[in-house]
Queue: 2 jobs
Job 1
Amino acid sequence: MDGMIFDIQHFSVHDGPGIRTTVFFKGCNLKCLWCHNPESQEASPQLLIKGQGCIACGSCAAACPTGARRLGDDGGFIPDLCTGCGKCASVCYPGVLEISGEAMSVSKVMEEIRKDGSLYCNSGGGVTFSGGEAMLQIDFLEELLRECVKHGIHTTVDTAGAVPWESFRRILPYTSLFLYDLKCAGGEVHRRATGADNRLIVENLNRLKETADVWIRIPCIKGINDSEAEREGFREILKKPGKIQRIDLLAYHSFGEGKYRMLGRSAPEFQPMDAVQMNALKDALDEYAPVAVL
Amino acid sequence: MTERVLSFEKYRDEFYQEFEEYYAAYPLPAPEAEHMPVDTDIGKKAAKTKPCEEKSRIYRAAVKCPVHVFRYFPFYYEVCTGRARNGLTAGFPPEPGIGGTMMRNHSAIEKRFFDFRDYYKERNLFISFFFTDFAHHCIGYEKVLRLGLNGLSDQAEKKRKNTQDAGQVSFLDSVICGCAALKRIAENFAREAAEMAGREKDGEVRGNLLRIARTAARVPAEAPETFYEALNTIWFMREIVMGLEGIGIAVIGHFDRLLYPYYEKDVREGRLTRQEAKDLLSFALNLTDAKWDLRTDPPEGGANTAMTIGGCDQEGRPVYNEVSRMILEIFEEQELVNPKLQARISRNHPAEFFERLARIAGRGKNVLSIFNDEVLIPAQVRQGKELQDSRLYVAGGCQEPVLSETEVNCRAYIYMSLPKLLLLTLGVGEEGFWEHEGLEPVQADSCRDFEEFYACFLGKARQIVHRVTGYFNEWEREWYGYNPCPLYSATITGCIEKGLDMTQGGAKYNTSSFSPVGFGTLVDSLFAVQKVVYEQKFLTLHELRGCLNRNFEGSERTRAYLANRVDKWGRDSGEINRLASRLADDLTLVFSGMPNTRGGWFENSLFTNTGYVSLRGTEATPDGRRRGEILSRGIGPGEATGHTNLSRILEGLGALNLENHPASAVLYLDLPYSPNQMEPRIYEAVIRSFLDAGGSVFDFNLTDAEVLLEAQKNPEQYANLVVRVWGFSAYFTALDRELQDEMIARNRSH
């Protein structure tokens, strides 16, 4: 069985406890306006074009079977014609063209994961499956989690939770920890910001925290979820029964900008939540779990 | 101790101010001492005077130099020999003052050596500051602490009675003369301190001066008995012997092992409190930062002062005690640039040791090197050194291991470009070289496969390295006449016993090593040749040679392929790790085993220090690196490979058998994080995983590019930002711009 993976990052220190390897699944069912991994949204492979380094050798145009990639002053790319086949990237030696998204087998992913055993062991770390939305590829995810458990590796799933409960039920036995993203508290705010309602997300969270270890992660973005109503809304959600281990407040960062350019899209402009609001949110939530500001 | 020890907290500012005012005037003219040996006897008759006798004149002259006692500093060590404030970073070029007199008198060798060396430097084969290592030595502190100067002198007297050999007599006389001079100098300190105490109004300062007066009258002529006396003996010997011998004594000793017995006894007998001991340690550890000018005129190569902690004793028992704790507390609490903290670790050490080291690393102190006992001790034993001696290794200036009390070595003086050895095999940048050396040029084009090419490379590399070894051995024979060091030698096991100076092989162990630079660049380049020329047949050797000779001009696509489409050391794994592993072993056959002239041999190392920059003129290499781009550092990845991928590097480390590198294999670990950004246990895990992977040495450097950029823009706000350069620590804002930019570039690529 293959899964669609767009990155495997070693030595992650902010995706759960200890030193971790984070496996990024491609494809997402939310469309958050501020998404900092825009290449994670589409489920299929996509061409990324870097702004620098082209030596104008013309190999890519010659290799392109659909005429999407051609030589010219207009950037030389017609996205509508691109099938993501990757033939251009395979001959682009300077690495200006790159395909994001690779179909990987369970054993190939496991090979990468198992390289860092010593770091996991010494730091209390492990593997984190993130995305995109890892739970959209539930069969592949379940298989990977089973393998990790078999090898004694601590497993974490980072999810936005907008999937059927059945998916959670399948992976619960093999998942040591969930990183659960709460984007916005108000239903309407959530819909505007991510394109989807958050009712399912909240319901799943309520069930999940009764049976599993959960860290809440809230991206903190100015003008999106920094209102008093949002703050109260987060409290409403978190005060339901069931235990949360920890809450991480993640200040918005613009690291994703370059990726938007490489996808030929313009980057959204957002700012991190003001420190005052951030602290207010921290104070509002710390009765439910220890809050870390990252 | 009747007088209270000065409180470091209370007197820190006075102490720094007093040092600043005093040393700002350095170098002071050396009264008569500088001229006496030069003008009267030696000038014309130098040739006739035996080297050791010439040195004895310097010892005698030193007695006449004024001594300086500080009011706010508990130790006595400053003799005004005319030495520089930022003195003896490398022992060469010769110090101002009497320590450099002999070298200046025999300076003819310099030009001869530079003429020889410059040929190779121009071709980027190797760089060498001087014909021997003048910088990375360690006094046999154990012996001085055990016997005192009287004991050293008695030992020399006894030996002298039993020998007729003129050379031995000359050496032993000089040892006796040197010990006598040091004792007279201590008496001078006693007198000076007593006089100052008589005039002193401040009660606490007077107490300090009286203790100096009382102690100096006895120590180090006699062996020290207390913690204070032992600590003072270390600084007294280190600073004064360095000032007289004109060589760099980088190591101030294995502090916690040496000092704990004194501490324990003092505390048990009610002579000393923990706070007093910590105050004394604080003053001692701040000496270098207070003395040196590290801000306006920072020395290239750092202040060359390193302290070892942890490790084990002669019987293999782990060392981690109250003195270790106090030292680690001081490093955590204060902002020290020196001494470098060389921590020896093993799985036998308590978790607390790892936790404290991790905290120091995580706070971005950037003065920490980690040494793996489990690799470095067996590495010494493999060379035939006794286990008990091997357990007492310390580490010189940057990372050069040396066995305390028993070994004199030259570890950091020939930095050889590994990629250049490959290029010579390929026939790049060889113009006139083979004729110059009287060697056959290589016929690599006839190699049928990579195995043949690899053998060809190793064979040629070995030929060249052995040739260069021969040259350096010729130079080494001149060391004794240029600058013998009988006083220093007296502290090292073997020298008095054999009646031989350290420059002639008096020590029990006398090793040398090359510093092969650019291991990562070489692995990547060889792998590229294997893949591209012999397996994929993407290029012929002839075509590759053409590309390299043209510095890839007109071959951009080929360069891009080599740089991006061939696996790289430290980024990929599997096959390239196997090549790296094999190469690291084979390089030991190239660089070690040759005899030196001191009865010892060459051992292998893989550290680069400054070489990766100095040898950047090496022609374009098959890994896609262009001429002028820096080489890889230590055993780390090539500089174009991208930011430190710790996971892949540890995997690579696991593939190398570093027990074959007794002179150490260094990983310069630049982590692109801000201080306090990650939990200490992350760093602890890195240290432990380094142990698990069988690493040898690594330097911690936390350098967030954003922070460094800010520091460049607003230097005044970042005056205390300390970074690790290649093996030494420095204030970032005091570094030259090029070095700053290089460090920023390296940590930005993620």
Job 2
Amino acid sequence: MSTAPVIALDAVVYAWPGHAPCLDIPGFAMQPGERVFLHGPSGSGKSTLLNLVGGVLTPRSGQARVMGEDLGRLGSSARDRLRADHIGFIFQQFNLIPYLSAIDNVLLPCRFSALRRERTRPDGLHAAAERLLQHLDLEPALWRKAATELSVGQQQRVAAARALIGRPGIVVADEPTSALDEGRQLAFLDLLRKECDSAGAALLFVSHDRRLASHFEREIALAGINRAAATIVDPHAHVRSLPPKGVPVSLEAARRETG
Amino acid sequence: MKYLIALAARSAWNRRATLSLVVVSIALSVTLLLGVERLRNDVRESFAQSVSGTDLVVGARGSPLQLMLYTVFHMGEATNNMDWSSVRKLTAHPAVDWVIPLSLGDSHHGYPVLATDQAYFDHFRYGDRQTLRLAQGRRFSAIFDAVLGAEVAEHLGYRLGERITLAHGSGELKLNEHADKPFTVVGILARTGTPVDRTVHIGLAAMEAIHLDWQGGAPIPGMSIPEQYVSRFDLTPKNVTGVLLGLKSRAAVFAMQRYVGNFRDEPLMAVLPGVALAQLWQLLSVGEQALLAVSALVVAVGLAGLVAVVLAGLSERRRELAILRSVGAGPRHVLALLTLEGLALTLTGSALGLILLTGLTLGLAPWLESRYGLYIHAGNLSAEEIKLLAWVIGVGCLASLLPGLRAYRLSLAVGLTPRV
């Protein structure tokens, strides 16, 4: 595996059209296989950052590289392919497509990425998915069940298996433990770290809960690296009930707070 | 693409309760649209098949369409009669090949009674110039003989030898029956798919005989002539409703029409069947177009329902779309997913509509046939119907683009982080 950073942001600025910049990161890099805890309360530009890394948005200025590719120079479908090939996402909750079985949810990335399909080759698609589910402590009886029949904790483990299948270079987890009760948070985190290690994936773990930070090699505060958010650090942001949190709305909120 | 189709199908199946209503509304609208079109076509076909080989229809001067409808299709209102002497003169005309006199007015259980003569069996043509064929028995020869159309015999369950009585007029009033002079069924015609099937045929002399003791549409009080004495009277008809004319040469048709139009003894007219039918279609076309337009609107409403339901479901599917985006689906995949769903719903609805239409035509055909003499075909789609169906599917496809494009824009704006 190469030693070039899997994610490298260099003087990246993003602003929604007609708005002041909400993201201004002078520099940020993640090495292959690295585990980074990103402390990002609401309003710190977290959504924008994730959409940038995922190649859904492109920076207004500066350079964002994912797996060495300059996102600004790729077309939108090339960025979609890059995301499909190299990044696994886990979200806070409702991670699964409700009408697919657990195993079909795990296999989703392989439907959109030939590369990840290829990487399951030695085992075969289903065997690879089943092995991951097994490693993540999901009993075989649940594999064929509809996503909606699983508990929240089981759903998160299925989501982790989906993020890991086909060994992507990067796993991005956005508050994956906040819907779990405390006892299960650490267990889930352990499993996730272990599987990222064996897949050789770098883990970008985004959370507002700093108690989990000690399990990571590196802790970064988004507010610290994002100059546009430097003035809006609000320790209570996550407890306050915000208006519906579509990207533009939360950015509006961010802007309001910036004044 | 194959996986997107499977995904769209499973997503739709997950919301089947709502979507099945959309499918049903599209199915019903397609049934209506194609049903109207089929009825329109088959009605025309039925009419056009009813008479062929007749050059002119002659009757008392009046509305050509009314004469045609009454004499050939036994529909609409009675026309004035023409004198028997005129029939004789027409028969004697050198350009005339044959004459079929027609006398209408009585009925049997709602079926019209047609009094005519042997020329009817010799010269009447329908469809592709086919002659009438007896399925059973023989032509009428004695005064009180009757020959039944296929539908009359089948529906009323009559066999040869059956004794039947005729009713005066359309037969709503039981009082006005010719009960004293029953007829015997001597022949049953083979099915033709024309009004002939729904007709009771008797001789002209019989028509005269049952009305001997009648005057002005009612029996003459205190006068009754038993059936065994009728042959003592002169049973030559005094007048008939109209005649069908066959010419020796079709080229003479306009000359003959002029001759009839200038007839000196009484005001007559001669109608070309094709011209009268064209007049009928013209009369009906406004109604047909309106009916077709209304059914097209109903289809539009069905498709609007489709768009509304798929669009409404979209807000609940933001998370689903964000998940698909996160695993690598591009906005174009999202567009395809939603458009495929709409297209699949349109196709399913159309297929269901076709099945419904076939079921309805199969179910209603016997009733339409016996009640209205209309022959509606089930099964094969006509070119026109295929064109309409293609329109529905094409418009459905375009309509499905609306939710597709909305989802496309949504997936760009929401990206990977939809509101929970």
